[in-house]
Design goal:
Order of helices and strands: EEEEEEEEEEE
Shape: globular
Radius of gyration: 13 Å
Distance between the termini: 37 Å
Number of helices: 0
Number of strands: 11
Structural class: mainly beta
Length: 111
């Protein structure tokens, strides 16, 4: 299992980013995937999940209405569109699947 995140960066409050997670080594379309983040000095926080059964999507209350999870099974890629960024969204964002995590991509929100 290999998960490689990209798309992070530094943005101002209110800005947007699109994170990607390229998956390999398993049948991507068959598995639930999620995003988890870890802010400086804090533990991991579950952000969002995309379930294969029925295509259900789920969000933490802290990001609901601002983040959108999606996946392209043909490209073996998971996405997270993050809008209306807040200072408290600053964290390393990780893609998670089959119990594995990627290396993470840094999102920094700063004015």
């Amino acid at each position: 299992v290999q998960l490689v995140e990209s798309g992070g960066g530094m943005v101002q409050p209110g800005g947007s980013l699109r994170l990607s997670c390229a998956a390999s080594g398993f049948t991507f379309s068959s598995y639930d995937m999620s995003w988890v983040r870890q802010a400086p000095g804090k533990g991991p926080e579950w952000v969002s999940a995309f379930n294969t059964g029925g295509g259900g999507t789920y969000y933490a209350d802290s990001v609901k209405g601002r983040f959108t999870i999606s996946r392209d099974n043909a490209k073996n890629t998971l996405y997270l569109q993050i809008n209306s960024l807040k200072l408290e969204d600053t964290a390393v964002y990780y893609c998670k699947g089959l119990g594995s995590w990627g290396q993470g991509t840094q999102v920094t929100v700063s004015s």
